[in-house]
Design brief:
Elements: E1 2-8, H1 15-24, E2 31-35, H2 47-53, H3 57-67, E3 71-76, H4 85-97, E4 105-112, H5 120-129, E5 135-143, H6 146-149, E6 150-151, E7 156-157, H7 160-178
Parallel strand pairs: 1-2, 1-3, 3-4, 4-5
Antiparallel strand pairs: 6-7
Helix pairs in contact: 3-4
Length: 179
């Protein structure tokens, strides 16, 4: 089983990347590949830019990573209530390759923030739109107050209810991928 995980952020200290990696590694008997969105930098999408340069290699490479996975684990950073510009731009480029960006993969959707909001707005948007892009969320989990629930030295979630929710999501994703 191949699991593709990433935080939808370009921060080098992304708590969303940390959460995605932690959760992906709860999926048993799987190989986890953790992506860094910084490796998929692209010009700002527009039809004019697409006509000028065609399909960028980084967009195709990202799309191919999704194609070669069995499960997706994405944790969304929230900028002003929405997706980060880098993620949205990468997504827009990939949707020009094929609108079925998520390629019928089971998905664990996550979002976290240091504050009490837990990036719920962006998580809701991602969860509500995934099916339009051939994604199949098995769980959507918001994690508010990240630093109170994650021990960065030990690299583990310390909140027992959250551990259970993430473990249950991992089991559901594995079951969905096995079908």
């Amino acid at each position: 089983m191949n699991v593709l995980a990433f935080g939808a952020s370009t921060s080098t200290t992304s708590i969303n990347k940390t959460l995605a990696n932690y959760t992906a590694n709860l999926i048993t008997n799987a190989t986890v590949e953790l992506l860094d969105l910084n490796d998929y930098e692209l010009p700002l999408f527009s039809e004019n830019k697409e006509n000028e340069i065609g399909r960028p290699a980084n967009a195709q490479a990202f799309f191919d990573k999704i194609a070669n996975s069995d499960i997706l684990v994405i944790s969304f950073a929230e900028h002003n209530g929405s997706y980060t510009a880098a993620y949205k731009n990468l997504f827009d480029w990939c949707s020009r390759i094929d609108q079925k960006v998520f390629q019928n993969k089971p998905m664990i959707l996550l979002a976290t923030s240091p504050g009490a909001g837990g990036a719920k707005s962006v998580l809701s948007a991602a969860n509500n739109s995934a099916s339009y892009f051939s994604g199949h969320p098995v769980a959507a989990i918001s994690v508010p107050l990240f630093y109170e629930k994650f021990d960065s030295i030990a690299g583990v979630v310390t909140d027992e209810k959250l551990v259970i929710a993430l473990t249950d999501a991992a089991i559901l994703a594995l079951q969905a991928a096995a079908k």
